[in-house]
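Sequence, please.
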């Protein structure tokens, strides 16, 4: 058993690791137990669908710290053993893991992350139906892409990606660079519809099609067919309108859901995620929860009121630091400006702010040259920027939003003028 005064962090992803690190940075000396269900030390997850899948990064490049570092920080790292049960009161509690280990704690932090949504379709359990969340998933997907590309002497075949979000499009782009035939099925009327502007959706639709990816919008998968000879392998995907798309493999990339099972065991409020306040406190007032398992008050002062669930490495880190401050009695509130990125082949997208309730968009640069910025305004105030191949624009807007600044929309369209020169205090 661990000492009762220990801080238990459930989830060894980026949010959990950042929380443990921030506690040490704040001078907290109490023992920390960091528990993760994967057998590898905490690693950077976003590159799984980018550099790691492409082969330009290895696992050693993704791992944040060697295991010796955890011992030096007095952080007990438990790997490959998920917490399955939690009990607590106002002074502490105990956790039970899948292996039967009991961990007593004084403070509790939930960093349980997300789980991929699954397709509830006939044939979803066939061999060759894949998803992407872990290193093991990425390794398996990489092997399949090599086979589809004919790199191992096989005959190749088509990858069907179900879902036109970031993960699906990043994998589709990498597959095309490897020479794999790809079809993307998106159930709605545009790509990335939940997170980007219609203008950017249109750009990515055209860009992926130029690179040879077949993209079918308003196309819902209803069944995954297997081999008639009964070998259990994927052969095709049936659509709601009767079309059939041949497939040698299927990647399911239809989003993720917050993992809230442990929070529900504790009776915490859950609404699309673990409900927390601006200090990362859950509804019991003593547990903290961080990262993409949470439903947070919108931290962006130029956003729209209400709650949201953010899925990004930046959110995981910033939110974890807020939670660490809360655990040691600090008063910091979570008020970060959200930002995101996506590498889709040779196209790099960087987003600052949140696209919502926009009434004006300024196009800066030339979308046909695949280097441009979309600046989005509400009531004359800059609220978000979507930058494709325009890193300096992204840096300027990100820093400007963090400092409460804006950019005159009338001057913003000229790409010859650096955006950092146009930043002015917001009224």
């Amino acid at each position: 058993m661990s000492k009762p005064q220990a801080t238990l962090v459930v989830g060894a992803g980026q949010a959990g690791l950042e929380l443990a690190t921030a506690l040490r940075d704040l001078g907290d000396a109490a023992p920390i137990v960091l528990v993760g269900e994967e057998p590898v030390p905490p690693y950077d997850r976003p590159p799984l669908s980018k550099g790691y899948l492409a082969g330009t990064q290895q696992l050693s490049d993704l791992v944040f710290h060697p295991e010796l570092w955890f011992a030096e920080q007095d952080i007990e790292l438990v790997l490959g053993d998920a917490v399955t049960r939690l009990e607590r009161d106002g002074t502490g509690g105990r956790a039970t893991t899948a292996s039967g280990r009991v961990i007593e704690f004084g403070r509790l932090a939930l960093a349980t992350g997300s789980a991929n949504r699954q397709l509830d379709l006939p044939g979803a359990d066939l061999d060759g139906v894949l998803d992407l969340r872990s290193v093991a998933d990425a390794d398996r997907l990489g092997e399949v892409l090599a086979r589809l590309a004919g790199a191992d002497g096989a005959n190749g075949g088509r990858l069907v990606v179900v879902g036109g979000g970031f993960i699906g499009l990043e994998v589709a782009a990498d597959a095309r660079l490897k020479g794999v035939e790809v079809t993307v099925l998106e159930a709605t009327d545009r790509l990335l519809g939940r997170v980007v502007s219609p203008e950017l959706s249109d750009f990515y639709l055209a860009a992926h099609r130029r690179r040879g990816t077949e993209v079918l919008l308003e196309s819902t998968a209803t069944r995954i067919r297997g081999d008639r000879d009964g070998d259990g392998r994927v052969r095709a995907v049936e659509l709601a309108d009767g079309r059939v798309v041949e497939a040698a493999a299927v990647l399911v990339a239809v989003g993720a859901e917050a993992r809230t099972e442990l929070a529900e065991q504790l009776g915490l409020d859950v609404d699309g995620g673990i409900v927390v306040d601006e200090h990362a406190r859950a509804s019991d007032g003593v547990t903290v929860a961080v990262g993409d398992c949470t439903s947070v008050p919108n931290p962006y002062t130029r956003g729209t009121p209400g709650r949201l669930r953010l899925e990004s490495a930046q959110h995981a880190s910033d939110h974890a630091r807020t939670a660490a401050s809360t655990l040691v009695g600090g008063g910091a509130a979570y008020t970060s400006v959200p930002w995101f990125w996506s590498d889709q082949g040779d196209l790099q997208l960087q987003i600052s702010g949140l696209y919502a309730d926009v009434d004006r968009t300024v196009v800066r640069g030339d979308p046909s040259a695949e280097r441009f910025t979309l600046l989005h305004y509400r009531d004359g105030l800059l609220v978000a920027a979507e930058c494709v191949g325009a890193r300096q624009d992204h840096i300027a807007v990100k820093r400007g939003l963090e400092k409460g600044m804006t950019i005159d929309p009338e001057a913003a369209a000229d790409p010859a003028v650096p955006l950092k020169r146009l930043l002015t205090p917001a009224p």
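Residues 129-252 form a domain with the FAD/NAD(P)-binding domain fold (CATH 3.50.50.60).
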